[in-house]
Design a protein that fits this description.
Blueprint: E1 3-7, H1 12-27, E2 31-36, H2 38-45, E3 50-53, H3 78-90, H4 93-106, E4 111-114, H5 120-128, E5 131-135, H6 159-176, H7 178-190, E6 210-212, E7 229-231, H8 253-257, E8 263-267, H9 279-286, E9 292-296, E10 312-315, H10 320-323, E11 329-332, H11 336-344, E12 349-351, H12 358-368, E13 371-373, H13 381-393, H14 395-410, H15 413-422
Parallel strand pairs: 1-2, 1-4, 2-3, 4-5, 5-6, 6-7, 8-9, 8-11, 9-10, 11-12, 12-13
Helix pairs in contact: 1-15, 3-7, 4-5, 9-13, 11-14
Length: 425
């Protein structure tokens, strides 16, 4: 039995997949502690881990980031990305390290396993000279030959022109990330660590083991992926999806089970949750279509006001293991966890990727032929309707989604991730 500490940033989209791997480690008999925000400690304790809440680190409410990080107030797009990196992820790293070192002094771990955006994981591993792995709930896109720099939502280019484009953009990206690199060096000094030549974008990841969701086939082709990067498919796949109690399903669930029309699901994820970005335009777009539109609001979006079309059903959270096998198309903002779960169930997508990593995900889905990239996070209803009709009537989209789904299912999910972690002891 190993003593393992896992870290998870206190966001639903991070905590849930990391909890799935934690549950598998607990089932295998390991002693697991989970370092996360107070809002998610009970979630980890419910699967048998011991919670370590943020104490020195400034715990925050993911529904109101600006209350703790004022520069993020009203921000979207590149400014939001920059402030996320500098204030939330890098700015809390030294305090996270303090919490983790206290946990290590109380009970040394054998292996430290961390959310890449919980940078205190890296710092604590360096301070204690520990074996450590990155467990990424979001895509881990390392730079490489033949692919454009991540973050711009670009597809691979070919020929001499493409090589020049990528070389220029790589230099521009490095320059743009100079403030992030400087903030990272300051955080290292605050955590009692020396400076390093490692910087953006590799500073988030363990050089020993990087467990990534997804599959090689879900990324652009490349020949130089480091050997310590291991893909495991869908982290929410634990190999034994049990039936959900009827009491956990929406009151209207019988409408889904008995539907004779296509079931379409729309989700806006858990980060930017203004329903006017994607949910409302999708409802308007599909109000007159012959389908059942299932809207997942997430736990941060306020209830929708006003009357809804007769073909719309709304709930805060909907168990995907029940919904996705019955779904024909998913319309999404591009959150990677939801995208991977949809593909694992062979469901094609319409993606409205606005910011953060979403444009990258949307571009890959479109390039792979498993869906349509709307090219914006705030699409018009007319664009959504056209994309839905294209994806729902062209069988090639479902065929390509199914091929990706087969790849994802073969990689093992949470069980494979746990096995890799066990190998680090």
């Amino acid at each position: 039995m190993a003593s393992i500490v896992v870290t998870a940033m206190p966001f639903a989209g991070h905590a849930r997949p990391i909890r799935a791997v934690t549950a598998e480690l607990v089932r295998r008999g390991h002693s697991v502690r989970a370092y996360t925000g107070r809002a998610y400690v009970e979630m980890f304790e419910s699967v048998g881990a011991r919670g370590i809440p943020w104490r020195a680190a400034p715990d925050f409410d993911e529904r109101d980031l600006a209350a703790t990080f004022p520069r993020m107030r009203g921000r979207k797009g590149p400014r939001q990305v920059l402030h996320n990196l500098e204030d939330l992820f890098i700015g809390t790293a030294a305090a996270q390290t303090e919490d983790l070192l206290a946990a290590y002094e109380d009970e040394p771990w054998d292996v430290l396993v961390g959310d890449p955006l919980a940078l205190g994981t890296r710092f604590a591993a360096e301070r204690t000279r520990s074996r450590w792995a990155t467990l990424a709930p979001v895509p881990a896109w390392l730079p490489g030959r033949g692919i454009p720099p991540a973050g711009l939502g670009l597809r691979p280019a070919t020929g001499a022109t493409g090589l020049v484009r990528d070389a220029v953009l790589t230099q521009v990206t490095r320059f743009a990330m100079t403030p992030v690199d400087r903030a990272y060096q300051r955080a290292r000094a605050e955590a009692g660590l020396p400076g390093t030549r490692v910087g953006f974008p590799t500073m988030w990841y363990s050089p020993q083991l990087l467990i990534s969701p997804g599959a090689p086939s879900l990324d652009y082709p490349r020949t130089d992926l480091p050997g310590h990067v291991r893909f495991v498919g869908d982290l929410m796949d634990d190999g034994g999806e049990s039936a959900i109690p009827r009491s956990s399903l929406p009151a209207w669930w019988d409408d889904v089970e008995s539907a004779q029309l296509p079931v379409v699901h729309v989700t806006q994820g858990t980060a930017n949750v203004d329903p006017s970005d994607l949910i409302r335009p999708t409802i308007d777009a599909l109000a007159d279509e012959e389908l059942l539109l299932v809207v997942g609001l997430g736990h941060r979006t306020a209830p929708l006001r006003g009357a809804l079309p007769a073909n719309v059903r709304v709930a805060e959270m909907i168990p995907y293991q029940e919904l996705l096998p019955r779904t024909s198309v998913v319309i999404t903002n591009g959150g990677f966890g939801g995208v991977v779960q949809a593909l694992r169930h062979d469901v094609p997508l319409v993606v409205a990727g606005g910011d953060l990593d979403k444009p990258e995900i949307a571009a890959r889905i479109d390039w792979l032929g498993a869906g349509v990239d709307l090219g914006t996070g705030t699409p018009r209803p007319r664009a959504i309707k056209a994309a839905y009709r294209r994806v729902s009537t062209d069988a090639s989209f479902r065929s390509r989604a199914a091929r990706l789904g087969a790849d994802l299912r073969a990689l093992g999910g949470a069980r494979a991730a746990a096995h890799l972690i066990e190998g680090m002891r």
